[in-house]
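Quick one: structure for this chain?
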Amino acid sequence: MTDSMADNRADNRADSMAAFPDWKSMGHRYFPLGVSMRHEFGCAVWKVSVDIGCSCPNIDGTIGTGGCIFCNTHGFAPSRRFNKPEVSLSEQINFGIRQLQRRYSKAEKFIAYFQPSTNTYLAPERLEQFCRTALGHSEIVGLAIGTRPDTLPDGILDMLELLSRTFWIQLEIGLQSIHQKSLDFLNRGHNYPVFCDAFRRCRQRNLRLGVHLIVGIPGEERKDILATAHEIARLQPDCVKLHQLYVVRETPLEKLWQTGKIRLMTLEEYAGLVVDFLEVLPPSVVIDRISGEADSLFLLAPAWSGTKHAARNAVQQEFQRRCSFQGIGYLSSDSLGNFGNCGNH
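Got it. Here's what it folds into:
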């Protein structure tokens, strides 16, 4: 991505800052997804994870065969991955909606989330069929598509650009880190320039973008994590997802952990680095999530990854300890406005 494109993106974001909700006045330390969804749709909106049966070029031999060292698709979404061809996308959506409505009585509107594997790794015509099926559901108000930066050909992006003129669509691109040593360790099979190229071509089409990042990659120091944070702040995606590095069964990462070759972060360490990261990001960037989670049948470590809300509570406490919030390190003192006063939240 050229500096001029980044500058133009920053100018466009600055022009639109008045449009995003003043989440701090609502008592938040960062811009949470729930506030963004209510702002966009006027009500609470929930994600329904579904599987459209895609593979991955880092598994099928196109790029590699081992996949990312942390990846076990069943471990990330075991209850939603049917592995039965007779289970249609519509049936998966209906099943997911029923599950959410049993847990949350006020759940009325939903975003279909193409989650497992690489969901742009198929022909544009086939992906369009899946998109239109999901978006045609009466309770679906938008679509999120999880993918890799090296599987976003122009044909896919052109199709999504046309759909996005009518529907709410967000591409969620796994980056994890800007550092090549980290991408090699994770066996990602792509480099940061590939991500930059994909990001640039998506922005040319005005597509909504989310970026997935891992905090706590072995070998990365605080300065490395902050370098990634500053670069993401410069690019200004629409949303960010932060994940800890956690170990699930039947992955190469499990072997490294079992043999003591890697050390995982404590909850306190992770919370501190997440706050460092969020302080750097613009206050207009939605924080989709601040930690990942895996099914207890697959999760090995760290133990706190299996404790619901543990990371969220620890991050909140760290923000409060610092009297800080998202964007405090991004905005100048002259432009803080309502975000410059810690208050009592």
